[in-house]
Amino acid sequence: GQGVDEPLSATGFRQADAAGVFLSNVKFTHVFSSDLLRAKQTCAAILGKNKFCRDLEIKYDARLRERKYGVAEGRPLADLKAMAKDAGEQCPSFTPSGGETLDEVKERARDFFEFLCQLAVGLEHKEAGASSRSSGTPKEQFVFPWANHCSEGEPSSEGSGSSKELDANILVVSHGAYMRNWIGYFVSDLNCTLPTNLTKSHLSSVSPNTGVSHFIVKLENGNLSKPEITCVCLNQDSHL
Question: Would residue 145 count as lying in a domain?
């Protein structure tokens, strides 16, 4: 949850370093992290291994915090399940006293995602203005290490499927329950295109620590109301 701001364990630091090595050749344009300590440390470890953007500014955002669990914060998952059972409900839909509902978590995720879309549209407008004054520059090519592992959901492109021309390539470091809700918002509200091999159990499961999910978001003509979202991979953990 949010109330117990514990640092990473020794295992957590090893996993963060492994994720950093895995992502070391990925050139990010922007980095956002939850402002909770474990996410900050994970994000710093990832950038610390990166060949291109070690000095990129990390922007911390409270909207990326883990779900608030109220009276269950800092307690074992078994306690939360017992509370849910006593209330005649099931996890994760059960909301402990003082905790956030799933709808409240989704609203935080929606708000942050719309902020990212506005950021991307702003970048596109800047590039358009620059190209009108000069010959313009090609968009960045980004190479992703999981392209050979899970490219079924990836849109086709000229040449290798492992490189994409994008306006922005944004790293977001958050938490398991929060990200599950965010992905649910993508699928249920925004009709995200999923890899053909993805099952419902994959969608409902919580990512392993430092699991990597990759989404391509297209905003046709800067239209913020109808983002086209494609899931390339979900909870990728080959680095662990």
Answer: no
